[in-house]
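Subject: for your reference before the review

Hello V.,

The reviewers asked for a structural picture of the protein, and I figured it would be easier to keep everything in one thread rather than splitting it across files. Below is the amino acid sequence we used in the manuscript, unchanged from the supplementary table.
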Amino acid sequence: MSKTGFVLTIVCALGASVAAARADEPAAQPVQKIDPALDALISSDAKMSVVKSGFGFTEGITWVADGGYLLISDMPANVIFKLTPGGEQSLYLDHSGYTGYDVWRHGFMQTNGRDRSDPRFEEFPMFGSNGLTMDKQGRLIICTWAGRGIDRIEKNGTRVTLTNSIDGKRFNGTNDVVVKKDGAIYFTDGFGGLRGRAKDPDIGISYNGVFMWKDGKTTQVISDIPNTNGLAFSPDEKTLYANGSADKYVRAYDVRPDDSLTNSRMLIDMSADKRGGITDGMKVDTLGNIWESGPTGIWVISPEGKHLGTILVPELVANVEFGDADYKTLYIAARSTVYKIRVNVPGIP
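And here is what came back from the structure prediction:
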């Protein structure tokens, strides 16, 4: 694609731009089987490996088939990185989230998940981009988080904002995004793009929700999840899954022909599990199983909502993505590190 504005293609050495850090080692046996049905989806002896470490907070991991690489948001760095399956890193987009000058006032404060007594502990504002996806024309769609909108990178490299408000009020922290085959864009919005969250003086809308941008119009399509986060479609796009972030559950919705939603129902409730990890990013494989971040790692969930097993991840998981030519590698964005593990069923391209 042509490069204008903030789009960069120069290879950036990690040195001063990204703090070097040693990744936590994956468990010797990360796959924890609960149901025999898991064997068809991932082998019990599958091994996890590190693709790249040393990031601030990874999010929005997205496979770009035309080129065979990943794009990831590093939120405290306010950039989108290009990352090859072999771990080669370059800068794809600078100022990917908030683009103003007073960056110290934007994005809530986050840590890298380590105890404050750990010498590796870090704390930082989250003002970079969050969720990413590619539309059917191969254009990058960006949740700008502290930028409070949905942006798109056109084929000529131009960056445009598709939407940043509803009913005359600004969004507060666009989080995750999916694109339906007909071009409808669904995205979540919460308070995380604001330093003071729901009490920030610059608050826009007073609620979290799932929204749809279609034909230039923005509408709310989900209002029954107080803390919205991740989204994913079933293979036939007749069902949209949305999760509840720290409330730890996934709901399912039927998709009408006009792209509106109906028949809200609980798919799985993880809230009884008090171990670390929230329902954040998720993806769906070609058989309709949901690969969802949750307590201790990634929960593999059947289309009926049954917990089939868990993939243990050393760090708290933010997002997941299927990639490689056969879409049988699960890439995992987990705080400071991108991990990968091979599976037996392809994800949805």
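For the response letter, the relevant points are probably these. The two ends are 21 Å apart (CA to CA). The chain has no helices and 29 strands.

Happy to draft the paragraph if you're swamped.

O.
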